Amino acid sequence: MPGAIYAEGLVKTFGDVRALDGVDLDVPEGTVLGLLGPNGAGKTTTVRVLTTLLRPDSGKAVVAGIDVLKHPNEVRRAIGLSGQFAAVDEYLTGRENLQMVGQLYQMKAKAAKARAEELLERFNLSDAADRTAKTYSGGMRRRLDLAAALVVSPPVMFMDEPTTGLDPRNRQQLWGIIQELVAGGTTLLLTTQYLEEADHLAHDICVVDHGKVIARGTSDQLKARTGGERVEVVVHERDQIAGASEVLAAFGKGETTVEHHTRKLTVPVSGGAKLLAEVIRELDGRGIEIDDIGLRRPTLDDVFISLTGHAAERTTDENGDGEPVADAKGRKAARKEKAQ
Ligand SMILES: Nc1ncnc2c1ncn2[C@@H]1O[C@H](COP(=O)(O)OP(=O)(O)O)[C@@H](O)[C@H]1O
Ligand SMILES: [Mg+2]
């Protein structure tokens, strides 16, 4: 029995770009799937296909038990979507935007009003409720868009990078809201560029790159594959990199990565704070001066390095504006490599 969100072999090309290259997903009812990947990985395209906004070239998708390609209208009634690009009406106030959504879903005017009020409060928009959305900051729009997606609570929800552009406080708050939603039985597919976020919210994680799922598992499983925590050291002088590298190699559980221009060395470790203290003593004993040292949890980049042997490609699309040029080039290069 497929889950509440199911996809098999989704392929979607845009000209030269293979945005989806055979994506398979299966999200059990009442759980959260984190679709984790860098810019251009195919996250938004996956969400657009599953939410009926885009037809794939091939493949199969079933959402809430309904075939997405055969019955898109029925699927639309069963899902909620918060897009990567806030879809609010600029000329309406925050309050009006939310009430309008309620009315679109055939809520009674009074109920729509009460729900709008509650969401404005929850998303810290009460003070700005009667201003038109075009006066809102990016973060405020983002919150309004999320609030709009929550006016009704559909059984299946999609959130595309819901916290991109939010400050830490609003991010935390949104995490809380998402957790409540899921506790209430909602199935959620969430895309993110942050392992930390997927870690916090998702039962299962699919790591995507170049339109393919390159790894799946729980956060713990993925982290185990990356070797867990890291010690990160910035040495004071470039000529101390070699010495520091030797020290880290002795304490590390995997390969040390070195970033010469920032004089930063990173190595996966186990042993936490105690080990960190030992590393500091050893560096000090060898007279290696450090500018900064710390223990940190793996990032998406670490997951990538351990899965693919290289860092997640950084394209010019750092702000997620969908700029395809640099990416199309990257993809062409990748295909060439494969062909060789
Ligand atoms: N409408 C489109 N036209 C051309 N290329 C597109 C279009 N939408 C997405 N792409 C390309 O498909 C790839 C995947 O994009 P997307 O799904 O938006 O990635 P993500 O959301 O993971 O950043 C990228 O290379 C992107 O540039
Ligand atoms: Mg996207």
Automatic annotation (TrEMBL):
One of the GO biological process terms: doxorubicin transport
Keywords: Antibiotic resistance, ATP-binding, Cell membrane, Membrane, Nucleotide-binding, Translocase, Transport
InterPro entries: AAA+_ATPase, ABC_transporter-like_ATP-bd, ABC_transporter-like_CS, ABC_transporter_ATP-binding, DrrA, DrrA1/2-like_C, P-loop_NTPase
One GO MF term attached to the UniProt entry: ATP binding
Membrane topology reported for the UniProt record: Peripheral membrane protein
Record EC number: 7.6.2.2
Top enzyme class: translocase
Subcellular location: Cell membrane
Compositional bias annotation for Basic and acidic residues: 326-340
KW Translocase (keyword) present: yes
GO cellular component: plasma membrane
SMART domains xref list: AAA
Residue numbers spanned by region Disordered: 312-340
Keyword flag Acyltransferase: no
Chief place of localization: membrane
Domain ABC transporter: 5-235
Family as reported in the entry's similarity comment: Belongs to the ABC transporter superfamily. Drug exporter-1 (DrugE1) (TC 3.A.1.105) family.
PANTHER family per record: ABC TRANSPORTER ATP-BINDING PROTEIN, DOXORUBICIN RESISTANCE ATP-BINDING PROTEIN DRRA
Protein name: ABC-type xenobiotic transporter
Species this chain originates from: Streptomyces subrutilus
